[in-house]
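Action item from last week, closing it out:
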Amino acid sequence: QLQASGGGLAQPGGSLRLSCAVSGISFSLYDMNWFRQSPGKEREWVAASYTSGARNYADSVKGRFTISRDIAKTTVYLQMSSLEPEDTAVYYCNAARLQPGDRYWGQGTLVTVSS
């Protein structure tokens, strides 16, 4: 089970931190991702924290967002800074592994960036 939280209203240039608490799976075996979906658009990948320790970001958020994971708390975070109205979306966390190819989704948390 993945439980996302931390969404809300932020002003342009502001910050928010999203959390995704993971239970029921072996957290350390899964790559953790954040996706987002804006109204009328397809869901897009935002950031990844790999089991190798590597991280990766979509170009649209690189330098502004930081993904991290706390193994002890089995939680993944997305620190979002310098927020822009274009960041407004429902944000979803995702746990995935190549073998055996299973993946899980959280329920989504709404982020609205507006003055």
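Closing note: The chain has a mean pLDDT of 96.
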